[in-house]
Amino acid sequence: MEHPKLLEIFRQNEGKYLSGEEISKRLSISRTAVWKQINKLREEGFEFEAVSRKGYRLIHSPDKLEPQAVLQGLRTRSFGRSLKIVEVTTSTQEEVRLLAEQGTPSGALVLAEEQTGGRGRQGRKWFSPPRKGVWMSLLLRPERPLSFAPQLTLLIAVAVCRAIRKTSGVDAGIKWPNDLLVQGKKVCGILVESVSEDERIRYCIAGIGIDVNVEAHELPADLQAVATSLKIESGRNQDRVALITAVMNELEDLYTLYEQEGFTPIKHLWEALSVTLGKRVAVKTPQGEISGVADALDESGALILLDDKGMPFPLFSGEVHL
Ligand code: BTN
């Protein structure tokens, strides 16, 4: 954002008129400079009402992610506090990988308005059009063995699902391990990439993609039948900043709960939000396709399938077809 200070003043005085003189004093710049900055913001889509002898009033902000708005909504200790927002990038996963390798501490968050090479699980592409979604990656440095990664993935799915329900009212559910569905269609995907050394995690990159304000006709043809957005499901535009901050707040709360009480409470929350449990599913695994009834999560985070003879079969990864 080019003029954060000017915007901050308008945001702090929501609905009020601010005179050019007052702004110029507060920012220690000339009145001409104030006028130029306001015009620049108008070009970016901000709308100001100008009334003689009263001044300017901000009446509309374009749907653009601004760091100060995100920071204001956070009630976290570390998640999202170190924040980078980029207009366009190949993938936020790569942005965070660079930060991680530079030694950036846990909790750093990168948000993009648009991704040109958004990545999904199993080498798939992730559709990430400008300003229509939440495309973000969070750096985590859990001091844990690599076997912790599947539990972390499930924990993230719970956090995002709760945040979506709270902010949009949309009834999202979790498909094992971490797709979020609404009425059978995918609204969010999560990609956790872990870098380890000697079986211990060095860092994890938690990538979260939420289709927020994508319209039905904007979805590529191959996604029309299988994907949806919060706007399509709720019938109204959704506030991306409220969603982002809710995800960070939920995520840090659950992470703290996990550190204090282990996986059991997370497992119960996951089970309550699951759309997979109790259903007959077919799962593609590296060993071939297995079908059965999804019965429960075990303490490690594996999905227990009961085959036709009632024999339990733990699944650690794979693609579930409901
Ligand atoms: C999936 O369901 O296949 C996972 C999709 C993950 C998409 C997110 S968007 C932000 C981050 N950057 C990426 O390139 N991918 C993840």
UniProtKB/TrEMBL annotation:
Residues 20-39 bind DNA. It is an enzyme of class 6 (ligase). Residues 68-259 form the BPL/LPL catalytic domain. Keywords: ATP-binding, Biotin, DNA-binding, Ligase, Nucleotide-binding, Repressor, Transcription, Transcription regulation. It comes from the Bacteria. GO terms for cellular component: cytoplasm. It catalyses: biotin + L-lysyl-[protein] + ATP = N(6)-biotinyl-L-lysyl-[protein] + AMP + diphosphate + H(+). Gene3D superfamilies: 2.30.30.100, Bira Bifunctional Protein, Domain 2, Winged helix-like DNA-binding domain superfamily/Winged helix DNA-binding domain. Pfam families: BPL_C, BPL_LplA_LipB, HTH_11. Its EC number is 6.3.4.15. GO terms for molecular function: ATP binding; biotin--[biotin carboxyl-carrier protein] ligase activity; DNA binding; transferase activity. Acts both as a biotin--[acetyl-CoA-carboxylase] ligase and a repressor. Belongs to the biotin--protein ligase family. This is Bifunctional ligase/repressor BirA.
